[in-house]
Design a protein that fits this description.
It is elongated and about 45 Å long. Helix content is 75%, strand content 0%. It has 126 residues and is mostly helical. The chain has six helices and no strands.
């Protein structure tokens, strides 16, 4: 409970703010798109096939988009041993941040658009 937030703070402070401003935005965009699509295809398609429900499969894919702790650890190891250049490390951290924030919004939208409206909650139409 104490060390997990501290870990994320340490990872965030290791990013050079200047490299964000001068970063390769194409690399960040490509990493983000590949990260999202690979989880949707790799998790969402099998779930849709096995459950025979496209919406359920899409929700599983949305839920799996997040790339968090393990990605940060591997990126940190690569940066520590200077295997990963600073601009790639920054792009990885931004991609991990974006993919961690995206799933709740996608899942909420998925459930809001397909959830049945119960008569007790539905507003009255005059």
């Amino acid at each position: 409970m104490i060390f997990v937030p501290l870990f994320f703070v340490v990872m965030g402070t290791s990013v050079d703010p200047e490299s964000i401003l001068h970063g390769n935005f194409l690399l960040i965009l490509v990493l983000g798109v590949v990260a999202v699509i690979s989880k949707l295809v790799g998790c969402g398609l099998p779930a849709a096939y096995l459950t025979k429900d496209r919406t359920c499969g899409l929700r599983v894919g949305y839920g799996m988009i997040s790339r968090g702790e393990i990605g940060l650890v591997i990126a940190s190891i690569g940066a520590t041993y200077q295997i990963v250049p600073n601009e790639v490390y920054t792009a990885l951290i931004i991609m991990i941040f974006v993919t961690s924030l995206l799933p709740p919004f996608l899942l909420k939208n998925s459930y809001m658009t397909t959830a049945p409206v119960s008569p007790e909650i539905a507003p009255e139409v005059s």
